[in-house]
Amino acid sequence: KSEQADGASEEPLNVSIQKLKERRDMLDSEIARLMSAGYNVRELEGHITLLHEYNDIKDVGQMLLGRLAVIRGVTSKELYPEFGLDMDD
């Protein structure tokens, strides 16, 4: 009986391992594609760091805009023109 239970618990683990291997292979292929396009790991890491910084700053801006909207009793969307923001910003 315990052999059946062990076999049953190993199956989902094997599926998870296989999915991780497929993900690794996909990422390796993407890295190879980017490197063949002229990118290097250091450059990509720098871009990723800058994107994280940008997103953090944007999040703070959105938070401040939201708080100002609450204080003024309007929606954040209504404040966008006042600050020269596009809805895609």
UniProtKB/TrEMBL annotation:
Component of the SWI5-SFR1 complex, a complex required for double-strand break repair via homologous recombination. One of its GO terms (biological process) is double-strand break repair via homologous recombination. Belongs to the SWI5/SAE3 family. Keywords: DNA damage, DNA repair. Gene3D superfamilies: 1.20.5.170. InterPro entries: DNA-repair_Swi5 (IPR010760). This is DNA repair protein SWI5 homolog. The keyword Repeat does not apply. PANTHER family: DNA REPAIR PROTEIN SWI5 HOMOLOG. One of its GO terms (cellular component) is Swi5-Swi2 complex.
